[in-house]
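Quick log. Single chain, no ligands specified.
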Amino acid sequence: MHPLLQRQIRRYFSADEVPEEMARLFAAIDQTYQQADQDRQLIEQSLELSSQELNERYDVLEQQLQINRAAKNDLERTLSLLDTTFDATEEGILVVASDGSVVKFNKVFVDLWNIPRSVLDTGDDAELLASAISQVADPEAFRRRVDELYDDPHDDSVDTIELIDGRVLERFTRPQVMQGETVGRVWSFRDITARKATEERLELSRRVFDVSTQGIMVTDGQLRVMDANRALCDLLKLDISDVLGHSLPDLSNTQQCSSFNSNFVAKLTADGEWWGELRTSLADDDHRVVWINFSAVRSDQGDLTHYVGIFSDITKLKEVEEKLQQLAYFDPLTGLPNRRLFKEKVEKTIASEERLEQKHALLFLDLDRFKFVNDSLGHLSGDELLVRVAERLGREIRRGDLASRQGGDEFAVALFDLQDDAMVGDIAKRIIDSITRPFRIKNQDLYIGASVGVCVMPQQATTFDDAMRKADMAMYLAKASGKGRYCFWDQETQAQMDQRILVESELREAIRLGQLHMYYQPIVDCVSGKPVSMEALLRWEHAQRGPIPPDQFVRIAEEVGLITELEEWVINDV
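-> predicted structure:
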């Protein structure tokens, strides 16, 4: 029996006093109590299970709330970062919804387009469009492109816009898509004025680089070629593929290769620049002379980044220069050094330290009878004769000596490192004998001679000019002594030349002052004893020395060019 029912029955009945009818009633009640306990236990168990499930679901919900709160915080941070990025970007950004309403824009957009605040407050993209159109250089093209983009909401576009104030904007736009549906359009604008100018300068530089007639090479810091223009490839006769990646010494066969490599690299590395002349021998044995100018290129921080080399083909210029050099220093007819080069070489040679104590000599040579040949046969024959004289002159002097043409029919020879004066005489005699031999020109033998004056250095002269002057004096003395001989300068030579100069000066003065007189004497026929003609004799009445016969001044007059003036005076007086 149910314990609760037992306690209740004991309160009213003893164990033996329960009537049978009541016992049956109590049995039914007991059954009810037992069923109630079972129902209660079932409910308690159900309640216990529901509470546990509720707690578990609460825990899950709490976890989800924590996740949502974290996601919200992340979203807020992301949105804040996006807003910051949106406002901090260098690009002006405008977001427009499909209905034409302005969703968002940043400050850069406002500044780029100078949008008035009143237009911004409307939130209407039509107002923004009108403001933008008023600023572009080509409003029609701008409007047409905007209409095309709105007509095709899925189209992307990148182009440039020129503003009337000279600025250039790059425009980029693409549709804004959410869940596969186009909900608007994003416009991005960037001021590329400076970049455009830089690009134009770079493009101009590239065109200049490509069309330049000078070869241009760009290398890295290790002198490996990174770029080269067509002119350089043409100059070196190489394809661009054969140039890139190589260093300059690899590209051509330089005639001064080892010295060029060392000097070029050392100076360029130390000074950041190098310039000089380079003679190259190309693949087809074509020789070129190239002027090269290399300079270092550095970053804003001063670090070496590249080298730039400029190559100029100066082959033709060098040819002209060599021709001018030839004209400036060599006689164009004979090819011998001229007076200028002769002087420079002699002065340089005798000034060298190892030759300061050596004996040298200058020979001044004048051709005899050349004027007669030149006047008789013409200048062409005369020129050929001078060439042949130069050839013989070169054969008679020693290796290391120097022959030159001084002008006209005058030559000079420098003899270096002589043992004695006898050696000078031997060479001078060989020269005279060589020139005395006949020259075969135009199928006829021509005979001329030579008179040579000699000055020994440093015994008789210590400077080139003094030695040439004294050799010239000695030559005149040799010519006056009968031609075809040589004469050393000495003090007597100087005295004779001084006398010649004095006579020349006084003779000019005598012609001017009328100190010349004509004397006439008859020529008588020995048979009849009668005069048949008359001889006119020229006399110089010198104020101090008295009468001077013609043989003392006529030859001097011939040599100094006074003979014509003297002949005219005689004819006029007679």
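The two ends are 202 Å apart (CA to CA).
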